Amino acid sequence: MKNILIAPILFVVVFTMLFSCSDENLADTGTTGHDTQLQFKSVAVYNENPGSGSGTISEFADGDTIGLYLHGYHRGYPFPYIARYYYWWQSSEPVFLSSNPMRISAYYPYRQNEHAFMNDILVNVEHVSQTDYMYGLANEGYVSREYPYADILMRHVLALVQFKFIKNDYPHDCSVQQVSINNADGVIQLRSKGVLNLENGAVETLDGYYDKAAILPEDMNFYEPYTSEEEYARILVMPIEPVRNDGDLFFEFEIDGRIYTYPLKKGTCWESGNKYTYEVEMVPITRSLKSSGSRENIRVVLTQTSKY
């Protein structure tokens, strides 16, 4: 009889203990029934001076994907990304938050074959493809169960060099076939590839990659007058340290089948996330126009530097 009574009593005690536990008594593993899922409120592109024009990408479009690096997250392998669909950002997988703040870094573009299994905060960048690489942080860097809504502000990684052409009395059609930034013979200062640190946005260029940065505009002519900076010829280029000697780097323009070159001055420096505007002025018709590549045929002046 005693044994019959003891069994129900033990069952009641155990049942009461199990269901009297509060959240404070549960381990914060991120897998309880009270998990909060990360949500994305907005993803915007940084632009310091909207009135002065933007970069090559001013806002994201449907189908764009942004990779996420979740610092210390014990799931998410392969690493998640978000994609834009009809003004909403959807995650490739749910991300659950605990009460511990979690740091989120973002990068654009996300490429499945390159980024799905990355194991650190370094992302390859380059200027040969003219991709507008970006990075960003969510909510000053952190989200948590108490604040699960992420606003991400993306910043440009490469430098943007743009050219406003001035015709003067130039007698030809003003058709621009190519614009490029080059190393002089024997110079390896301009490097075409590097790694981006998602933690701080720093770019470290890599030895062994010295390709020029170039664009091949389609049906681009001189605008008279220009209505916006979007009409300028624009090149994305890896950041460079100050040019050591006059002419170590040079611009090359192919206009109406003629090649014009212009050497960069000693001390020229292009920083990550900065925009550099140059005026390219054709010499008046009273002077000789030859396809010799001499800078006497063209005049180039830096007119503005700003963030973009």
From TrEMBL:
Pfam families for the chain: Mfa_like_1 (PF13149)
Superkingdom to which the source organism belongs: Bacteria
InterPro entries per the UniProt record, alphabetical: Mfa-like_1 (IPR025049), Mfa-like_1_N (IPR042278)
Name used for this protein in its record: Fimbrillin family protein
Organism this protein belongs to: uncultured Dysgonomonas sp
